[in-house]
Design a protein that fits this description.
By secondary structure, the protein is α+β, with helices and mostly antiparallel strands. It has one helix at residues 2-51, and strands at 60-61, 73-75, 79-82, 85-88, 93-99, 107-115, 120-128, 138-145, 150-157, 160-167, 178-185, 188-195, 200-207, 216-222, 226-235.
């Protein structure tokens, strides 16, 4: 009996030890799983914040000099890069070329723009939902229009609301470069147009009642071919 009792006691001790070991392993595995899940959640959250950051990809500058336009998406038009500039050789109404981040908010976009015929051409900002068509996008447009020799600002939301028309100090010269600079801060829009000799031909500084608050950038022409170069985007200074 003594031998049997000893064996039973040893067996029970072994079983208890195995149970404790199993419990310890289960606790360890649960802890490791919790730590791994937490790390994945934290890293995933960080990645999302980075991807959705309004500063991601800024400052931006085009690569037209190297002939690279892979990051741009066309919505109508006939676009090509030549001699460091982007050309639209189509007179299609509302042709657009878009790039950038959907999460950019307050920024300054500038570029040299030249019109090749009648119509208008310029820059679009805070662009979302772009499609092929005249006003088939949501965003802010700032451009030059030959018909009334004016700087034009407006808002598109798959329709067109012209907000500002500022007469130019001199007629538009086809195939001549004009530097357009647009600064956005909330719904405050500041726009300046200079000729190649840096003389100012028009400017505007005002606040829209409502406007898109974030989105990509783009080039746009209406019933006119156009040329664009030196496209650059920087974060706008913080509002005071």
């Amino acid at each position: 009996m003594t031998g049997g009792t000893t064996v039973d006691s040893r067996r029970r001790r072994d079983e208890r030890a195995q149970e404790r070991s199993a419990i310890w392993r289960a606790g360890r595995d649960l802890l490791l799983f919790t730590l791994a899940a937490t790390a994945c959640f934290v890293s995933g959250t960080v990645v999302i914040r980075i991807l959705h950051s309004p500063d991601r990809g800024l400052p931006y500058r085009d690569h037209f000099v190297s002939g690279d336009n892979r990051e741009w998406s066309a919505y109508g038009g006939n676009w090509r890069v030549q001699s460091g500039a982007m050309f639209n050789e189509s007179n299609e109404r509302g042709a657009k070329l878009v790039t950038g981040s959907a999460y950019w908010q307050d920024y300054t976009i500038q570029a040299d723009v030249a019109l090749r015929s009648l119509g208008d051409a310029g820059l679009i900002a805070r662009v979302s939902d772009p499609e092929q068509g005249v006003d088939a996008y949501s965003g802010i447009y700032v451009g030059l229009r030959v018909r009334d020799e004016a700087l034009v600002l407006g808002i598109a939301d798959h329709d067109w609301q012209e907000t500002v028309t500022k007469p130019l100090s001199a007629p538009i010269v086809p195939n001549s470069w004009y530097h357009i600079r647009v600064q956005l801060s909330g719904c405050r829009v500041s726009a300046v147009v200079n000729r190649e000799d840096f003389s100012e031909v028009a400017s505007y500084d005002g606040t829209f009642e409502a406007c898109p608050l974030r989105g990509k950038i783009g080039l746009r022409s209406y019933d006119s071919g156009g040329m664009w170069k030196n496209v650059a985007v920087t974060k706008s200074p913080a509002s005071r």
